[in-house]
Here is the input.
Amino acid sequence: MKLENETILEIVPTFRVQWEEVQDCYVVLYPEGMVKLSQSAGEIMKRIDGKKTIIDIINDISATFEGADVTEDVMKFLEVVYGNGWIRNK
Amino acid sequence: MATVGLETNNQSRPLWLLAELTYRCPLQCPYCSNPVEMAKYKNELSTDDWIRVMQQARKMGATQLGFSGGEPLVRKDLEVLIKEARSLGYYTNLITSGVGMDEKRILAFKEAGLDHIQISFQASNEELNNYIGGTKSFQHKYEMARLVKEYEYPMVLNIVLHRKNVDQIKDILDMTVDLNADYVELASTQYYGWSRVNIDQLLPTKEQLIHAESVAREYQEKMKDKMKIIYVIPDYFENRPKKCMNGWGNIFLTIAPDGSALPCHAAGQLPGLEFPNVRDHGIDWIWNDSPDFNKFRGTSWMQEPCKSCDEKHKDLGGCRCQAYMLTGDATNADPVCDKSPFHETLHNDVKRIDKLSGNKEFESKPLVFRNMKNSKDIMTDKKTPEIV
Here is the structure.
């Protein structure tokens, strides 16, 4: 898949992203398994909602972190998790 | 059950709660991992007990919840438990034979918020499947697996491999492709509980394993974008033990049908455990403070050759149940390890079975099927097989 700025992403329904209070991080849950997300990974994954485009997500994160340029990091991460089968085009 | 990518934590937490709701089961698989003495487990926990357990474990960080058994579908309150678990934030897994399920119930589970259904098959053809399971269940399982997919659950198919079905591995994998499985667990029989009783009939030969592994690898490659195939060889053929349960009291918490809490579903056979019960204690105490959960935690309980071994943190000495079954002392190294003085005995036993398999008389020895009658017989006659 080519991830374009205007691509709208959603979490593949067989995966679930949720905040875990006890572990103080976002996690991805799937059959009999769990992956803990780093803070930056959590910031990206929690914004994937089937409505936002990639550029929306980038702008939103950038605004949260005082205008930092996060484009490259976000794109790189999205390519990896797309490969994991966690996200897809809406 | 295999664990897909569950991350280990620095601090031990009961991340994985296995709720063995009942030991009742319509199937009689002769490799069942339930205790051989299952007939003595009466007095199943009530719905409220289970809800309390789920709440307490969730508070401690549990995220994965497996409803297992026996056959969890036997419990009439399963829908209620799923609903409660899901609202607590668990990822809910139903580990089932599919017997006792129908479309109406699959829909009810979906509405209750069930995340995933894992169905077991005993073989890829009706005759062998029904023989091993001790019931006429193949067609029904097949239909249920199809429906699981139709209702958009992630589908995990679990097939326990042993000498009687491992040569069908290609057919088995073709079946899982046909059913569009997302994950396939080719779980080689581990020799605890019932399978230890039946080891002479179930242990595969070296030749069979080499064949099975090559077929599994071929399908892993062929299906890599569509289906995740997990293939684990029986550890009796290895030279280093597995890091059993990811470490004692590290991430796994099993609750047996009667409320006994165990660090592993096979640990009921170990001597010297007190089996704290959730009717008497909270999960917090059981996990952090009970003698059982601290008994083999970490490495301080070890004796030689583990104690001074530079690999001790890698496998934590292997499996405590295996150490006990094969050496009589649960603090010994798992004999799968070639540093164990019992390793040779284990491998000689493997070789003995390898040599005899195919022999008509040896192969005709009947399987001891997993059912309450055989459980009672084994307990009363003390027919538990001599192992060491």
